[in-house]
Structures are given as structure tokens and as C-alpha cells.
Amino acid sequence: MRPVGNQWVVVTCPPSKREWNMLQPELLEAYLDTDYHVFGEAPLVLQPGVPRSDADRFLRDQGVETAIVLTAWNPMSVATAISENEAAQARLIEDLDQRGLVHIPAEGHGRDGQWPPEPSLLILGVPLHVAQNLAAAYQQAAFLFLRRGAAPE
Predict the structure, then answer these.
(1) According to a count of CB atoms within 10 Å of the terminal CB, is the N or C end of the chain lower?
(2) How far is CA 24 from CA 28, 139, 150, in A?
(3) DSSP letter at 76?
(4) Which region, left, alpha or beta, applies to residue 139 given φ > 0 means left and ψ of -120 to 50 means alpha?
(5) In this structure, what are the phi and psi dihedrals at residue 108, rounded to the nearest 5 degrees?
(6) For residue 38, what are the β-bridge partners?
(7) Alpha-carbon distance 142 to 33, whole Å?
């Protein structure tokens, strides 16, 4: 799926890796059936494909046009030991800090309850190509992308 207007959508990633772009339908459905909780002064709950005026307002208040929700947990959606997930998430945070990217703690909650919540990050001001590169670097098959509302073209 691709970003549409100011809606949160699941973006499969990266397009250069064909095997990563061919998600099993069940896996894509699981991504779409996940609520993404963003923790902060004004908590948000984001759902793929559901427009949120509070998310748009949040991005405007932060002075950014885009943001992503990304995790380093469970690469390619394969259950991984907690210690490995925690180490990968720490590397992601260090990477973002070195790049000067502002991030806010978040968590993905599958509505079916089959996976425990995954620690994630809302990363501000990330263009799509950078998001795809980050997802590839941390072996994530997908992420959420938000682009602040734009005038119709």
C-alpha cells in the first residue's frame, strides 16, 4: 500500500527487494489490523487507512510534514528472542539519535491479540525514501507512513 492523503497506511518495504515486497496476505492483514499507540504529551492511537485530524494537527505542531512508525522487533515478522529484539531496538534508537531524528515511544497492538505488543517509535520528519532505507536496515517488512494533509492536485 502507499500513502494516501493524510491517512496512515502500511507501506511494504523496500521496493528494491522483491521478496520483501511480496507479503503473505495474512501478514499484510495483520499489519492492517494493528493499532499503533503513540505515547507522549498528547497520546495518539493510529490505525492504517483511518484519517486522524489529531495526528495531522500533531505533525503541524511539531513542524514536520511526515512521520513513520517503525520497530526493530521481530525482523521480517519472525518471532525473535526478547534480548535480541531489545538490542535491535537500542541500535535503532542510537541510529536515529546519530541522525538527529526526533522519535517518540510507540507500540503496535494487534487487534487479534496473537502477538504481544511491539515497542516501536514514531519518528518525525522522515521522507518516504529514508523510511524505506531504515526499514530495510532493520529488516522490517513494513512500517506506517504519515504525510500531513496537502492541497488537492
Answers:
(1) C
(2) 6, 16, 32
(3) G
(4) left
(5) -95, 125
(6) 44, 106
(7) 13
Distance of CA 66 to the CA centre of its chain: 11
Cα gap 123→63, rounded to integer Å = 13
pTM: predicted TM-score of the whole model, two decimal places = 0.84
Closest CA to 145 of 83, 89, 69, 90: 69
* Comparison of pLDDT for 37 and 146, the residue scoring more: 37
Distance between CA atoms of residues 100 and 36, nearest Å: 23
Q: How far apart are CA 68 and CA 115, in angstroms?
A: 21
Instruction: Give CA–CA dist 43/55, Å, rounded.
Output: 10
For residue 128, pLDDT over 80 is answered with yes
Phi, psi of 63 (to 5 degrees): 75, 30
Could you read off the pLDDT of 27-77 as tens digits, one per residue? 778 888 889 999 988 888 988 877 778 888 889 999 999 999 999 999 988
Cα–Cα distance measured from residue 36 to residue 3, given in angstroms and rounded to the nearest whole number: 16
**Cα 8 from chain centroid (whole Å):** 9
